[in-house]
Design goal:
9 strands, elongated, alpha+beta, three-stranded antiparallel sheet, disordered N terminus, 2 domains, paralog of FGE (formylglycine-generating enzyme), four-stranded mixed sheet
Length: 457
Amino acid sequence: MLALSLVLLLLTVALVWASEKLFSRLVEEFYVPVIQDFISFVNKGERYPLIHTISELRLRVFKNKLGINKAEETKACSDRRNFGKEVSEEQKVFCSRYDELIDLARSQISISKVFEPLYLNYEPELLREIEKQKARDALRIWIRQKLNCLDDHFRCGRDERAMLERVTGYDEETLATYIRLLINLDKKLFPEEQILPPVQAMDLETQCDFVQKGKTYDVKQGMVYIGGGPFNMGTEEGPENEIPRREVHVDGFWIDRCEVTNYQYLLYLGKDPFLRKSTFPRKFHDGNYLKNWMDDLMPPMGEELKPVVNVSWYAARYYCNALGKRLPSEAEWEKVARDQTEGEYPFEGGAEFLPDYGWFRDNSGGLIHIAAEKTPNSYGVYDTLGNAWEWVFDHYGFYRLQNKDNPQGPKTGAYRVLRGGAWNDPAEYLRPALRRDTLPQSTRYNVGFRCAADLPE
């Protein structure tokens, strides 16, 4: 008896697994037109866009799997299924296949553990199509209506109520899954509506100064102007890649007061799906892009004001360029970090006073910290030393003595340059002259960036 029970259990598991795999393949085959149809129906103001989409999907599936040309060809099967009407002998096999497809979809879509991961897998495509069809506002209205319907099915339209009952049977777990997914989708459509606590917003405005005032975007918001002129770059004594010390000249430029934070990055990702965790092309990172984010538009909880990390050079450059800015050159970065000084560290007292200006191994507690908590330099720029390494534009290479006016690295090369040191580095890594090389696809838990810009003073 026990053996028979085990066999039956294994057969049941195998059938469920097979159904799940078959359903997944159907979803993969038809998801593109489904998403396009659904957003189009929402944008047109259709009362029941989901029902219309399902109707179109059924026709596509039946054409592909049953070989029909018109929806009317399944009417006899539908009548048999819904009203018990008899069909002819030659139609029975066809109607059996029809029933199998209907039962497969209905059984799988009502299982949260099947439906939810499938939906999340294709949600980035949905978000892209929403942006493409400019349907954010229309979809928000639909989401609010569906949340009302799921909360109280008597607030649904008659057709919706019937469909909801067929699909979910009003199962609490299934309804809770749909509600959670809809709420999260609404948040992802409008990430800019996330509200920071008043004290944090005030800190951003008074220190980093990147909280936008008014509706017009100002590229200079959160930046400080660095006057052009000469400074001594590099060191006389040190690693081979830091020497020689020589005078170079850079033209005036603007640079961000603070390293780009998770919050700033999130606001941009809300407008541009290209740079999101699930959609940023794999050739531009090493597979760990935004590894610490929970989802496309969900940075680590409570870390909104910390520097964004796990970003590649390509992602940093794309972000800056999209905002009308760019990555700073290595020379520009060092001019700011040196802060018009000549010593090993850009403040009196050397490494002894480093804890006042930056987060590093001795004072960070093993964690990255909120931007702008330490003393700024005389330019009003925060965290050039410590907290997170910063990408700069240049290819990595040894210094060239003849390259003195707005010096750039080599024109080509496999590696880009990191500057500044991070929260987990020793004090000697937080010198303005120190340089590191790494692949531009690299995404590390202690590497971020800030932007620069060429604008009138």
